[in-house]
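Q&A log
Question type: sequence-to-structure
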Amino acid sequence: MRISILTLFTEMFSGPFDYSIIKRAKQNNAVTIDIVNIRDFAKDSYKSVDNHPYGGGVGMVLKVDIIDKALSNVKCQKSNVKCKEYVILLDPRGTPFTQAKARELTKFDHLILVCGHYEGVDERVTSLVNESVSIGEYILTGGEIPAMAVADAVVRLLPNVLKKEATLSESFSLPNSSSSDLPILEYPQYTRPEVYKGMKVPEVLLGGNHKKIEEWRLKMSSSGLTRGSSSSYSGSLQVR
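Response status: OK
Response body:
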C-alpha cells in the first residue's frame, strides 16, 4: 500500500512513522508513506495557501485550488499507474473512524489523507475527496494527528505486518472471535508482581485453566465500554 499525506506541517510526521510497527512495515515494503507539503503547490511568491473566509469571520481558510493541485500531483493517474485509490479529508464533521473502516481501507492500493488546518478548508474540497472522516468529537489544531491515527490503524492490518499472535490480541478483538471488528474493548491485562500494595491479580488468571481464562476475558471484554465506565455493553461503541 501507498499512503500519501497532504499537510502544511511535514515535520510533524518525522517521528511517529520512524518507530515500532510502521517502521517495520516500511522496511518490509508493506507500505510506502509520502508526506506532501501543500505549500509546494502555491502559485504566488509568498506561497499563500489560505485566505479570509467569504462573509467574514475569524481565522483563515485553506484554498480549494491549492489542495486540488496537490491531489492531482499525488494521484495515480499523474504517473499513468492504475490503482485502487481513496481520498479522505480529516474533518471533525466527518464520519466517525472505526476499526471496521480501517479494515475497509486496506483494500485500496493508494490512500490519500488530506490534513486541514487554520479555520478549516474551503467546503468545495469535500467534492474532491471520497469521504470526510473524524477520529472523535473534540477539537484539534489540525488534521495531522488524526492522519497519524488513521495511518497507524490501517497499516497494522496490512498483510505480513503483524504476527498472527499479535492480531489475536488486538484491543478490538476477542479470543477466538470470528471478527476483529467487534466494538468491544480488550480485557484487562496483568503481569508480575502478583500482589502490589494489596492489589491482587485475579485468581482465575493464576490457575492455568485456559477455558476459564478465556471465559473470564470474554466476560470482562463485554462488561464495559470504557475504563471506569459502569455502563454495560449495549451493542455499539459510540464516538464521544
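Response note: The domain at 2-155 is CATH 3.40.1280.10 (Alpha/beta knot).
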